[in-house]
Write a structure and sequence with these properties.
Length: about 525
């Protein structure tokens, strides 16, 4: 069973990294989504070899059988770090910082906590508190050195940059909590604690995470009149983090108190970071793991049923040492990188997104973008032109357009902006009066109402662009007033935001296939 526990523990660490990467990706802009997931892979590929080659020796583990698991935890530290530098750091800079974290800062943190533990003055189940605080300190230092993203904290802009895919981030939080629960269980099996203590550890983790999430939910509900989704999820994740260090040694009642405090201060911490402007932490990792890890170690030192208050001084010293070691080493590394221009991408690259400028990735969601790649198509016209042959044969009758010809029937174009939910009813009504052809596209915009205000991570933002649909139709024989009145009848609700109808005089229209123009080009294939 112990041999299997090593495999199970490694699987759970990778699952935790996956969930964390998903959470960070959902909180990023879509133009940086691919790079965030790639940074999780970079963290694994760099941190594990670096820790196995050098970091393990620095940490004092030597030939310990825990080397592999600790190396994977070093990758988790780097993945936490990645959440604090979203959309700003070069690939070379991130790789360098990951190497420093795995070679020096995290191993030195492990060594310091092991020394404290040798004196019986440090209590941390599985050493996970060291992992979380190391990642939080590194993320804070890295984000502070990089500065904020463009558009964040400016006087004429919102001080928050909302994530592009919050459901994806929430799924990542749940996956992260599952992995964390499995990591704690694997550690319990490795140190061969009794079944009663193992079940108590699982109970404490679930209680700590759920109570912390509930505290965040209620606090944001009261504070903003609506539950804040991302902050509630962050509070739940912080609660799981806070529950791990003392899951085997703290009573359930005290764990509830730790969870409540963690949830409350996680919300306050995220608000402070977002509004402060100095630290741009898109996924809130510095707060989630800093508050969670800090309260976890403090709670373990105060409410420990096995050692009493003896572990409190050591846990306090560990918190201080971890932040100093990781903050200084990561900060110095970034200062050196910045000196040689290897730290932050340029403003032009930041506008394009890290996906494109650092990885050459056109879009992380390619199916939703206009695919302009035509290299796999062979066209006779292009082929003739490239071979120097005449292209005149490709322009045959009736492809001759007379620009001076007056249209036989006046043409009018109507552009209708309306609510999304009214689209189907409008299509049916227009079909009923003989309007068969139309172009529909999704748009965003605002009228005289200038949008509305909402909260994101505790910060009020002005939502000035509402989601609408635009329907474009061309009218020939059907009276324009009939089309307008039909559209108004269907779209009218009497409330602000019903939409507008723009009416244009159209010069002409040409059907590409046949060369027909004017009214004839508006007729369907069945009319020919």
């Amino acid at each position: 069973m112990v041999g299997f526990s090593w495999f199970f523990g490694g699987m759970m660490v990778l699952l935790t990294i996956t969930g964390l990467a998903m959470m960070e990706t959902g909180c990023a802009k879509s133009k940086n989504a691919g790079s965030v997931m790639m940074e999780a892979i970079i963290a694994v590929t760099i941190a594990i070899p670096c820790f196995l080659l050098v970091g393990g020796i620095v940490s004092g583990l030597g030939e310990s059988s825990a080397m592999m698991l600790e190396a994977m935890l070093a990758a988790l530290v780097c993945c936490i770090l990645a959440g604090g530098i979203i959309g700003r750091m070069t690939v070379a800079g991130f790789m360098t910082v990951c190497a420093v974290a795995a070679l020096l800062s995290y191993p030195l943190s492990v060594r310091a906590c092991r020394i404290l533990g040798g004196f019986g003055a440090y209590q941390d189940f599985g050493g996970f508190g060291t992992v979380f605080l190391s990642g939080a300190a590194a993320a804070y230092a890295a984000s502070r050195m990089l500065g904020t993203r463009m558009g964040k904290g400016a006087k004429d802009a919102a001080s928050v940059v909302p994530g592009h895919n919050i459901p994806f981030a929430l799924a990542g939080v749940l996956l992260f909590c599952v992995g964390l629960l499995g990591m704690a269980g694997a550690n319990g099996l490795l140190i061969e604690i009794g079944e009663d203590m193992l079940s108590r550890a699982a109970e404490n983790m679930v209680i700590g995470g759920s109570v912390s999430g509930l505290a965040g939910l209620l606090f944001t509900y009261i504070r903003y009149k609506k539950p804040d989704i991302t902050m509630t999820a962050g509070a739940a994740a912080a609660g799981f983090v806070a529950a791990v260090p003392g899951c085997d040694s703290v009573a359930s009642g005290w764990m509830c108190l730790i969870g409540v405090l963690t949830g409350f201060f996680t919300i306050i911490g995220i608000e402070s970071v977002e509004r402060g402007g100095r630290v741009d932490d898109p996924a809130g990792v510095a707060v989630i793991f800093g508050i969670g890890g800090g309260f976890g170690l403090l709670g373990t030192g105060i409410f420990n049923s096995q050692t009493g208050l003896r572990a409190l001084p050591g846990n306090l010293a560990a918190i201080l040492l971890i932040f100093v070691i990781n903050g200084v080493l990561v900060g110095v590394t970034e200062a050196v990188l910045n000196r040689f221009g290897l730290l932050r991408i340029s403003k032009e690259q930041e506008m394009e997104g890290v996906d494109l400028c650092e990885y050459g990735l056109v879009s992380s969601y390619y199916d939703f973008q206009l695919n302009l790649d035509t290299t796999d198509w062979t066209d006779l016209y292009v082929q003739a032109k490239s071979e120097g042959e005449s292209t005149e044969t490709f322009f045959k009758e009736p492809y001759v357009y007379d620009a001076g010809k007056e249209p036989d029937i006046p043409l009018t174009k109507l552009e209708i902006i309306c609510r999304k939910e009214k689209l189907e009813a409008l299509k049916m009504a227009l079909n009923d009066i003989g309007i068969m052809g139309m172009t529909v596209s999704g748009v965003t915009g605002c009228g005289v109402q200038k949008g509305y205000n909402e909260y994101y991570r505790g910060v009020p933002i002005s939502v000035q662009l509402r989601a609408k649909v635009r329907i474009e139709v061309v009218v020939a024989k059907i009276p324009v007033d009939e089309v307008v009145n039909t559209a108004r009848r269907v779209l009218f609700t009497g409330h602000v935001g019903d939409g507008k109808i723009f009416i244009y005089s159209l010069n002409d229209v040409v059907r590409v296939r046949t060369g027909e123009s004017g009214y004839a080009a508006m007729q369907g294939a069945l009319s020919e």
